[in-house]
Structures are given as structure tokens and as C-alpha cells.
Design a protein that fits this description.
Helix content is 63%, strand content 11%. By secondary structure, it is mostly helical.
């Protein structure tokens, strides 16, 4: 089962999906340099503990340090988040969501061609 991950927790998870294991101090240092967010070390440690309690992360003790690593796959988490969003915002209806995204975003010719390719592949799978 994929745990529900908050926006702040996603920031931590992305760092660990990018490279793991990492110590809490490494995570704190990286997030401390993150522009636009004032990360308190205690807050980051709280996020790590929450993610461990949710089953999203685990750790190995290395002397006085804890080495954190993800227990859940990034793709699985993204899929669960997409499904949750689709259900909450669009009552599970994919077509209106896709139409809204396509209408709201600026799409290049290459983007449009890629979308067509994806739809054609999907059609051939049926």
C-alpha cells in the first residue's frame, strides 16, 4: 500500500529517490539551500520520522547517524497521487481532467505530436 505523502514530504522523498541512502544532515543541508522555503532542521527531522512511520522510508543506523532510504517506488507514488487527484477533483473522470490540462497549458508542436503518439499507442493496445 502506498502511503499518502504531503507536499513537504514529497520534497524529502524526491531527494531520496534521486540518491540514497542519505543522512538527515545531508537532507537538512540540501533543503537548507532550497530557495523559497525556510526549512527548520527540526521540521525536516519530523518529516523523516513521519515518512518512516508511514512506511515510505526506512533507515539503517551507522554509528550516531541514520541513513535514510525509500521503501516505496517513485513511480508507484506518482501513480497513487494521480489517482487520488483524479478522484478528488474530477470524480474519477479522466477526459475532463485531460481536456482542462490541455486547454490551460501552452503546448508546443512537439508536445502535441507526443500526445498524439501516446493516444495512438493506447488505441492500438485495445
Amino acid at each position: 500500500m502506498i502511503p499518502k505523502i504531503s507536499e513537504a514530504e514529497w520534497r524529502v522523498m524526491k531527494l531520496l529517490w534521486e540518491k540514497s541512502p542519505r543522512t538527515s544532515n545531508e537532507i537538512i543541508d540540501i533543503l537548507d539551500n532550497d530557495q523559497g522555503v525556510d526549512w527548520n532542521p527540526k521540521t525536516i527531522k519530523t518529516l523523516l520520522n513521519r515518512l518512516v512511520n508511514k512506511g515510505a522510508l526506512d533507515f539503517d543506523k551507522d554509528g550516531r547517524s541514520y541513513l535514510y532510504y525509500p521503501k516505496v517506488d517513485e513511480g508507484d507514488c506518482r501513480r497513487a497521487e494521480r489517482r487520488s487527484f483524479l478522484g478528488r477533483v474530477y470524480s474519477g473522470a479522466l477526459k475532463p481532467m485531460l481536456a482542462a490540462f490541455i486547454e490551460d497549458e501552452k503546448l508546443s508542436k512537439a508536445d502535441i505530436e507526443e500526445l498524439k503518439r501516446i493516444l495512438e499507442e493506447k488505441e492500438q493496445q485495445k
